[in-house]
Amino acid sequence: MLTKTNHQNSAGSNSGRQLFIRDGDDVFIQRSSKDAESNNASSGFRTSVYKHFESNMRVVVCRTPSPIYTLNIYVPTAVTDNKGLPHTLEHLVFCGSKRYPTPGYLDVLATHNYSVGTNAWTRNDCTCYTFSASAEDGVANVLPVFLDHVLNPILSDANFTTEVYHYDETGKENGVVFCEMSSKENKENILSIYHLKKLMYNSSATFAHYSGGKTYGIASLTNKEIIDYHHKYYDANNVTVLLTGAFSDDFEERYLQKIPADIIKSHGNDSRAPMHCFSPDVGRPKHETVRFPSADTSTGSFEFGWQGPPQEDIETTIALEILMEYLGGNPSSPLRLRFVKRATPLAGSVSASVSGNVASRLVISLNRVPYTCPTSAESSKSGSDSKTNGVSGGGGSIDDQDIPHLFEENYTKNLLIKELERVYETRFNGDAHALENAAKRQSDSLAAHAENSPGKLLQTLFYFDIVASHFSPGSLGKVRIGSCAKQFDILAELSKRPIEFWLDLLKKWFIDAAVYSVAAIPDPELGSELEAKRKEKEQENAAKIVDKEAHIKFIKDSAEANTAQITDEIKHGIPRPDSTMPSSIPHTQSLVVLDRAIGPVAAVQTINSESSFVKVRIQIPIGTVPHELRAYLALFQALLLKTDLVLPAGVVYENDEKPLQAERRIPYSEFTGRMSDLVTSRLAYVGLGSYLFSDNPHDNAFLVDFYTPHRNYLLALRWTVQGLLFSDFTLERILTSAKNALTRITSIKRSTESIAGGVGVHFTDVLPEQGQLSNKHHMLFLAQEGLLKNILAKAKSGKGDEIIGKLKDIQSALVQATGGFMALSLPSSEESKPYIDALESEWKMCFEKYAQRSNLDYVDAKTVTKSPFPMIYNSNFPDLEKPIFVHVPVESLQTSESNFYLKLDIPFRPTSKCSFNDDLDNLIALDYFALRMLAALIGRSGGPLYNAIRGKGYSYGVHLYILAQSKLFLRIFTASDVVKAIGAAKQLFLDIQQNWDAHVSETDISLARSIVKYNITASQSTPINMLLWGISNSRDGFSSAEEHNMWCNTHIAAVKMSDLRRVFEKYMFKFADDDCPMLRLIVTPSDTKVPAELGPYEQKTLEEICATYKSDY
Q1: pTM for this one?
Q2: What is the DSSP letter of 428?
Q3: C-alpha count within 13 angstroms, C-beta hemisphere, residue 512
Q4: Between β-strands 299-310 and 359-370, what pairing exists: parallel, antiparallel or unpaired?
Q5: Which of 274, 389, 1063, 1097 is least crowded, fewest Cβ atoms below 10 Å from its Cβ?
Q6: pLDDT number for residue 478
């Protein structure tokens, strides 16, 4: 039991000794090209390094303007087998420490300090423990406790049993880590990368093994091995702590020096040693084919790898990243044009990256590659039910002579090398500025990352330094903090390099170098084989059990020992930060309702903040799109801004001073290439824009947005408006997009999470109009698969004009829509008027020509009669008369998921009937915030739901939250025993009702407030987040972020224990009531049996659900 909670005054304090001393001068990490251009050595994120007075432990404090503070504890670790030692240890670290042995104390402490909890990640060369909070004091309070868990964990056998591995009385294997890796180890991309690394590195190298652990290795692992592993690597000598955020100048004196000395005392273990990873074993091949389980055999994938430079060679590494960006980083890159953007795609997507650390890899991935199953012809003749998506392979149509041969050994590799040779021979397609532009894109992308995700960017940059100084032969023992501090200087210098430099780089590292490759092919039988092996293993395990009752008791006792037992005394002693911290970055917000509309834009909302970028989002209502065309919105969004343009005479092209004198076609490659040079991102989409349509309450809007450096705004706006009005939907681009969409659907159907999400929307989003589908339904992969096949069939039968006509009709409806808005995120010094005027000028010029071309009666801009805000939420969740129980078995899945959906109808924002102050005084959203807080409390890491399910090893995770303001959502995911997980969840809710005080105390209310307040602050922590928060403000009827924050904070502060109890009884307890009208959904491997006592689940296949849409298309 934890007896001391005030860790700064507990035994082992420092008696005035300076634990940490400054280690060198401050380093400044450049944030953008402006820092490089300023010639100011003190421009950037100021970074201070402190070294422990007697060990090699270091603390790095990197000051950023973000109100989110992050803590990262790095422990360089190596892997020698597939047992998952670093990964299993990572999990066990959270189960208690010598100074703080109470299970769950770290989680409770973290969530009381304006955070959602702690986390961690494991790679082949490092394990990192992470925490973020919206208060400096929050990091200070958690740091010593987290360090004690990392350096002095308990590592008990009971922890191992539930968190890592055990099997139950029937022999069924469980454990949190085991569940996690069961879902991952046979996934296509994970298998491919694992086998590629095995080919590229020698068999003793850390990168040749699976850091997460293979299930067979985890099952053979012992707790003693983990204890020994911890002893070898987890010493203060080997630890580096990185802190990022707006830390005060005296943080080191106030907090670092007061960490109890015994927590971070070194035991003399130093794991620094050179890693010699390359030089693959003699005789090892350079190619391998691997199988992965999939019922659909239409697509596979390829991974190609080349050995990269040592991590110390920063300039070459950055140069190769630029080259990779050129080759595959944007829609008009050579590899995408060669393999993806063609009438018959040879891949659904291409990626190119520099991976790894000490021993880097250059990797090009071809995903969703058409696979021709060797037995497809025989299967068709014999009536086999082998499934394909109809694009190619497996009996599908073959439109390209390459497709039948893609998976023949070396065939696709030769296609790739020939394309790289073509790029070399044509000197980057004759474009002398191609790599200069790629370097500028890389610079802009890095600056955007620094602005909107500074903590994550710095976490990555320092990870490279920390691991290199620990394991790299060229840096061993050298302190390398901030080696990438001058990245923008390097990028600027590289942008000036002559084309010969880039040609030599391409030739040396790709064309002349050895290439390793892995082909991943789908196997419809492998899922059944794996399941049969699991059953066989269960029988073997069951046969080992001598005393079943004793075995059951052992597992039960282990689960209880690992269950959080946080008393009120402990909770009252938990240190908490100041609650008056700011909720957002400094900004101003304004909303202008226009006198006359600019096309669909009736209002403009502007957020000004400290930024170098402009973010534009135009939201267009789709109510004018005829219902019979809504299904084609998915194809429309896939094509818009990604197809040819036909500019009419009279509009301005690029930076020309005069309008075009004649019509001009802009090829797709030129348009997308130019947009890539101007913007760091651009999108056109319905709602959240996915074929697996996310549950978004605003599916009645079409969004067009782009994010661009301030200098490029006018040109980016011009191209975007022209793209919206003058896109030409050619049949070739339609075929390419439709085929790529089908391969994406194939990937979606291999994911338990994606299937569950889509089926959930299918049953919970129902329009009241008879015979009509909602926009969400139209966008679902369940509906789109049939439609896309129909589109391909029509195109091949000569009816392509019919499809083109539908897309043009959608375009016309959106262009003529009214009542939309534009959201602008601008640098703090900028006024919005010039930006609005630019939109008005571009729109007026282009729409006049569009109207002439389309034979529309051109009219002047419409008068705006009302603001588009507040907006109406769409919740089509029907009022169910009885519960719906659905079980979807799917071939090839390895783990299960269960989702519960309960309809909510709770006020969460001001009404339009009363004044804001009246609504706030009446606390009309009290139930909403009480339920949100209760869900955070029950569902938090280390909380009751976590302990009931993950704590017993039934699944990797469980979430509970309000979904899209209209559903209470319970999700159990990556489950090895979903039946027991559901049973445990139901029992928990029954127990909470009967023993409320045992689960919820007065001190828990402050914990729940802390979690919710952190999420609110995180939503306002960067310029882009602030823009989205601003949209949320206006959409929900708030005049400003301050008013919205006042609404949230007032309601949160007003929630009492009685409110939590009331919303539990009214809403949450219904998860335990099988008679309550709600959707209960389970998605499992095909042979999973759902017992009758769990509920009257009706089994439905994906094919049956998809068939319900066929009549609509």
Answers
A1: 0.94
A2: T
A3: 8
A4: antiparallel
A5: 274
A6: 78
Gap between the Cα atoms of 124 and 194, Å rounded: 11
Predicted confidence at residue 562, as pLDDT, reads 86
Give just the sign of the alpha carbon dihedral 168, 170, 176, 181.
Answer: positive
Chain Cα centroid distance, residue 957? 16
Q: Express each pLDDT in 910-937 by its tens digit.
A: 987 778 999 999 999 999 999 999 999 9
Of 614, 722, 736, 731, whose CA–CA distance to 670 is shortest? 722
Residue 791: count other Cβ atoms within 10 Å of its Cβ.
27
pLDDT score for 394: 35
pLDDT, block means (10 residues), the chain with 1113 residues: 39 67 94 83 90 95 95 97 98 96 94 94 97 95 98 96 96 95 95 95 92 96 98 97 96 93 95 85 86 94 95 92 96 95 94 88 97 60 46 47 94 97 98 96 96 95 92 80 90 96 98 97 93 94 96 94 84 81 84 93 95 96 92 94 96 93 96 96 80 62 95 97 97 94 93 93 80 84 93 93 97 95 96 96 95 82 79 83 96 93 95 87 97 96 92 94 93 96 97 95 92 93 94 91 94 97 98 96 94 95 90 60
Listed in sequence order, the DSSP H helices in 972-1056 are: 978-994, 996-999, 1002-1018, 1023-1035, 1041-1054
Do the beta carbons of residue 567 and residue 108 sit within 8 Å? Answer: no
Output the six-digit token pair for 971: 């999700």
Residues in a beta bridge with 364: 304, 352
Q: In whole angstroms, how far apart are CA 388 and each of 347, 351, 747, 899, 1112?
A: 16, 24, 12, 27, 22
Residue 202 CA to residue 197 CA, distance in Å, equals: 9
| H/E stretch holding 702 | strand 701-709
Q: How many CB atoms neighbour CB 1088 within 10 A?
A: 17
Neighbouring residues of 881: CB distance < 8 A, sequence distance ≥ 6: 1077
What's the residue count for the chain?
Answer: 1113
Locate 998 and state its tokens. 């045992």
Secondary structure element (H or E) that encloses residue 763, with its range:
helix 752-764
What's the CA gap between 739 and 389, in Å, rounded?
9
Helices within 476-625 (DSSP H only)? 487-494, 499-506, 526-544, 548-561, 568-572
Candidates 369, 371, 349, 353; CA nearest to 361 is 353
Distance CA 394, CA 668 (A): 31
Tokens 């973000």, residue? 66
Ordered strands of the 644-647 beta sheet? 664-666, 644-647, 727-728
Greatest Cα pair distance, the chain, in angstroms, is 90
Residue pLDDT, tens place only, 526-571:
999 999 999 999 999 999 999 999 999 999 999 998 887 788 888 8
**CA neighbor of 541 nearest in space, from 241, 175, 31:** 175
CB within 8 A of 948, min separation 6: which ones?
Answer: 984, 985, 987, 988
The residues that bridge with 1083 in the sheet, in sequence order, are 888, 897
Q: Which of 60, 24, 1011, 920 has its CA nearest to residue 466?
A: 60
Q: What is the dihedral sign for C-alpha 223, 228, 230, 233? A: negative
- 814 in Cβ contact with 702 (< 8 Å): yes
Closest alpha carbon to 679 in 704, 638, 707 = 707
* DSSP type of residue 296: B
